[in-house]
């Protein structure tokens, strides 16, 4: 029996034909402006994917593409064997390859350049529903071979489903507990499968916009920390980031004091049998840190850079999963749900402890009242605008504390709807960017100089609003940057332009 998709996931359902509503400010101001129509070709093994704008321009791009293939792969001649085929598949050309369109199926994904979205084709949605339906909630065991196939297919689908790559911790941990060729399916595994089912139901009303997958220059830079007392952090927004109603463009502070049972469970020299490590608390603080910026500013389709002085937390945040069934697995699951709901592009980096005094103070000075706390920051770390304090809601606090206690929460319990963004005028000044590679790409061979922290490394000038927009340029990351990108999309203004038309050509 093949499971049926929900009616809302079928292409002829009214919800699937409704245009995707973009954020108020569609164009990220860090995208370099250009007056030229886009002309770009990407090569993926034997697939050639082209983009072009304008009638004459798209003819030129297609002609250059086909001539380039002929220059690399020799065309047929009389001396060739009858079994040798043309470098460019005539069969696929007759099926529509090299024809232009605003919607194309490329590398197993449907790209819509009018709505600027990417989504799974219908047969892959049906396959996802089939996978989830094949493992009922009461199933206790599964064969190792089938489990590898399930993990592989879910991983391939998660590339363009924001938030889904954070759901694999319990599923990967299941591989460490097997009897022969059989895998035990724990409650955490079934919870992850239920989360994928939640994403499947959410796909119809929540298509993936391309801007949610491409990291840009940071629109906000933040520092967070956690201690045995609580967690806290600070955010410095870029001038172009729109604040939400009730907030303004001032630097944002937040803090949360841990409940006593969490403090008592912390592993210390006097409590070596505790169940919660300092890294777990740092990871919980990282999630609250992202909630702070999402509630105070409109971060939809914007890149935000969060820094921590804990390496274990940093690599959990970058990878999105861990092979464990402890608190990090529950917390990383919340990271994924949070990212999917608020639609931002997260980036994470290391901030040496000696140069992280703002986050240290925000996670330790709980003996100060809120007014004393703000006064301390405004006098010790003066900015052009005074700091503003944000307090975590009871809803997000409950979800985070439950994850530290290794108790799952329903996805809906984490979704705190933020206030509407305030209307803004012109975006801030654009600047040319260096594109970092996507977080789930293979490590780059780029070599970085050795890095040593020092007590004098903290530079207050780097936290001024004018320095935030280029924050990603200061990243010391293991996955490197792409050396060069082609001309970028769109004109200098927000005026309408013809959508880009993708095409593809393939060799057999």
Compute the CA-based radius of gyration: 25 Å
What proportion of the residues is helical, as a percent range? 25-40%
- Structural class estimated from helices and strands: alpha+beta
Q: Ranges with pLDDT <50 over ≥5 residues?
A: 7-20, 426-455, 468-498
Main β sheet profile: 6 strands, mixed
Q: What's the overall average pLDDT, rounded?
A: 80
**Shape field:** globular
Q: How are strands sequenced across the largest beta sheet?
A: 14-13-10-11-12-15
Distance between the termini: 35 Å
Can you offer a commentary on this structure?
The protein has 508 residues and is an alpha+beta fold. 32% of the residues lie in helices and 15% in strands. The protein has a six-stranded mixed β-sheet. Strands 3-4-5-9 form a four-stranded antiparallel β-sheet, with no helix packed on it. Strand 10 (218-226) and strand 11 (230-237) form a beta hairpin. Helix 11 (327-342) runs antiparallel to helix 14 (394-404). The longest helix is centred in the middle third of the chain and has 19 residues, at 278-296. The radius of gyration is 25 Å and the shape is globular. It starts with 13 loop residues before the first helix and ends with a strand. The relative contact order is 0.17.
């Amino acid at each position: 029996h093949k499971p049926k998709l929900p009616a809302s996931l079928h292409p002829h359902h009214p919800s699937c034909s409704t245009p995707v509503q973009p954020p108020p400010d569609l164009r990220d101001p860090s995208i370099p402006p250009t007056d030229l129509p886009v002309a770009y070709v990407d090569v993926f093994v034997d697939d050639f994917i082209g983009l072009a704008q304008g009638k004459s321009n798209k003819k030129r791009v297609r002609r250059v593409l086909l001539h380039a293939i002929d220059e690399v792969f020799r065309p047929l001649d009389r001396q060739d064997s009858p079994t040798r085929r043309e470098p460019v598949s005539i069969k696929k050309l007759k099926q529509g390859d090299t024809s232009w369109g605003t919607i194309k199926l490329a590398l197993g994904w449907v790209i819509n350049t009018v709505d600027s979205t990417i989504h799974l084709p219908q047969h892959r949605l049906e396959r996802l529903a089939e996978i989830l339906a094949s493992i009922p909630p009461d199933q206790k065991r599964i064969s190792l071979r089938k489990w590898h196939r399930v993990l592989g297919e879910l991983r391939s689908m998660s590339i363009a489903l924001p938030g889904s790559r954070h759901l694999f911790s319990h599923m990967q941990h299941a591989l460490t507990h097997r009897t022969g060729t059989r895998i035990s399916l724990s409650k955490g595994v079934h919870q992850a499968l239920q989360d994928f089912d939640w994403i499947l139901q959410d796909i119809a009303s929540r298509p993936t916009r391309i801007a949610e997958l491409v990291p840009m220059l940071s629109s906000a830079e933040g520092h967070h920390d956690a201690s045995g007392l609580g967690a806290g952090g600070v955010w410095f927004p870029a001038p172009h980031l729109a604040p939400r109603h009730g907030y303004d463009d001032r630097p944002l502070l937040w803090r949360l004091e841990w409940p006593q049972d969490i403090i008592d469970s912390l592993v210390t020299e006097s409590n070596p049998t505790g169940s919660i490590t300092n890294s777990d608390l740092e990871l919980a603080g990282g999630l609250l840190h992202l909630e702070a910026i999402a509630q105070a500013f409109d971060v939809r389709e914007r890149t935000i850079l969060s820094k921590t002085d804990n390496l274990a937390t940093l690599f959990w945040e970058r990878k999105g999963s861990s092979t464990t069934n402890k608190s990090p697995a529950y917390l990383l699951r919340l990271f994924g749900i949070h990212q999917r709901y608020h639609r931002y592009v997260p980036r994470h980096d290391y901030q040496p402890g000696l140069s992280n005094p703002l986050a240290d103070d925000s996670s330790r000075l709980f003996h100060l009242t809120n007014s004393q706390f703000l006064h301390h920051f405004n006098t010790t770390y003066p900015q052009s605008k005074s700091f503003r304090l944000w307090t975590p809601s009871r809803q997000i606090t409950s979800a985070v504390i439950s994850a530290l206690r290794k108790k799952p929460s329903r996805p809906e319990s984490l979704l705190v709807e933020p206030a509407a963004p305030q209307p803004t005028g012109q975006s801030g000044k654009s600047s040319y960017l260096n594109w970092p590679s996507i977080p789930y790409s293979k490590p780059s061979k780029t070599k970085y100089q050795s890095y040593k922290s020092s007590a004098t490394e903290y530079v207050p000038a780097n936290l001024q609003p004018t320095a935030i927009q280029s924050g990603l340029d200061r990243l010391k990351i293991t996955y490197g940057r792409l050396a060069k990108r082609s001309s970028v999309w769109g004109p200098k203004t927000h005026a309408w332009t013809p959508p880009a038309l993708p095409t593809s050509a393939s060799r057999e």
